[in-house]
């Protein structure tokens, strides 16, 4: 049976709680990812997704259309009215603090069930009590598709 350690991403982009939302948005765009772990000196303290940034910014912006242009766009292309707001606020203000985590030895079906039940798109993978990687819905889907073609 396929384990999370077999499909997880281990080379992770991360941010700190003090990272500006502008820098975090730029990182997501550069890395072509939709979310990253938030690390502090205490370890992993949350997750930040593109949806978190858009949801946070939508409370502060006049134009939702400008915010939707954020997702997947490099920070240099941000509209001038959105950029200052993103520079003034930090990841700590927008991140999701609740984490969904599984052990690296857990099977892929466990991750799929947790994601479906919790309506999340990424699960933190823990090995020896530390962050070892992340499994996303794309990873799970890819592993299921690979299993069908083997």
Description:
The protein has about 150 residues and is of the alpha+beta class. Helix content is about 40%, strand content about 20%. A three-stranded mixed sheet has the order 3-4-5. The chain is elongated and about 50 Å long. The two termini are about 15 Å apart.
Spell out the blueprint of helices and strands:
Blueprint: H1 4-7, H2 21-31, E1 35-40, E2 43-49, H3 50-58, H4 64-68, H5 83-88, H6 91-94, E3 101-103, H7 108-118, E4 122-127, E5 130-136, H8 137-149
Parallel strand pairs: 3-4
Antiparallel strand pairs: 1-2, 4-5
Termini separation (Å)?
13 Å
Overall spatial form: elongated
Number of strands: 5
* Count of domain modules: 1
Which class in CATH terms? Answer: Alpha Beta
Question: What's the CATH superfamily, by name?
Answer: CBS-domain
Radius of gyration: 16 Å
Order of helices and strands: HHEEHHHHEHEEH
The largest sheet, given as strand count, sense and whether it forms a barrel, is:
3 strands, mixed
According to CATH, what is the topology? CBS-domain
By DSSP (H or I, 4+ residues per run), the number of helices equals 8
The order of strands across the largest sheet is 3-4-5
Helical content stands at 40-55%
CATH architecture: Roll
Strand proportion, as a percent range, falls in: 15-25%
- Derived structural class: alpha+beta
Q: Spans of 5+ residues with little confidence (pLDDT < 50)?
A: none
